[in-house]
Amino acid sequence: MSNTMKLSEALTKDELRELRKKSDLRALATLVWNWGLIIAAFAVAIIWPNPLTILAGILILGGRQLGLGIINHDCAHHAFFKSQRVDDFVGHWIAGAPMNISLPAYRAYHLKHHKYAGTPEDPDIIFVKNYPVPKDSLRRKFVRDLTGQTGLRDTLRKIRSFKLSRNWPWLTFHIVLAGTLTAIGAPWAYLMWWAAELFIYPAIVRLRQIGEHGTAKDRTSLDPRLNTGTTVAPFWQRVLIAPNDVNYHLEHHMFASIPPYRLKRLHKLLSSRGYYETFDCISHGYDDVIRRAVRNDAPEMVPAE
What we know:
Elements (H helix, E strand, L loop, with lengths): L6 H4 L2 H7 L4 H24 L3 H26 L7 H13 L6 H13 L17 E2 H12 L2 H12 L3 H20 L6 H25 L9 H4 L2 E3 L2 H6 L8 H6 L8 H10 L9 E3 L1 H8 E2 L10
Parallel strand pairs: 1-4, 2-3
């Protein structure tokens, strides 16, 4: 296949129409899966409290905190439930409130990212513009994340900008969570949420950002195959660090209106028809993402004469 293959040559209008169909059942299943994992993470640690179950619960919570953010993102695109009103409610209250994300504010911000992806006007370019980076630089970034430095910085920023009129849904979530855990006799489990948000969530977000645009070959290009990446991830990575098909980010940038639960199907169709041939835009697992994110700055050896 030619590397100039057009999207219209790889995908028929009927196929695109089918891919754009929203399913309330699949959207609900995604929502239940995310909250089910959150409840399970707390439940297992509370029923069998030991360092292993608590650590596993914190890891799960970190991934599902991103999962809630991704649901908020999909609702912001009106690409989740059939009803836009349901999307607005779920995105703002059920997914956005726990992560202190206002759906209208996020929508205005994020649509600029899609419009200006990779350009200086892209509000997300600051997160990926220097990739690939030297190995030591990448290591320092993840050390800051995993030791809580990034999470503490972001949390203090939330607190400093807190306004009750704007942030009361977030505050309400934490009051309900702490109150519920206290009522069942496990107030200590509330700290698991904060441990996840301070120590795990920032590292997962960074890894996601790198996989989406940090490994791109030409972020200034208008072709998503050059300015965006997709990561084909195994199940365990999708549970822990790539929730709700967020790893199919290249496909999302092609068609933001396609629901997340249909992006895998779109990826398989385009791959089978050679649409990605000659484009190095697909990573295979997040270990591959990390490899692509590293720049080799070692000086070239000059052969002896």
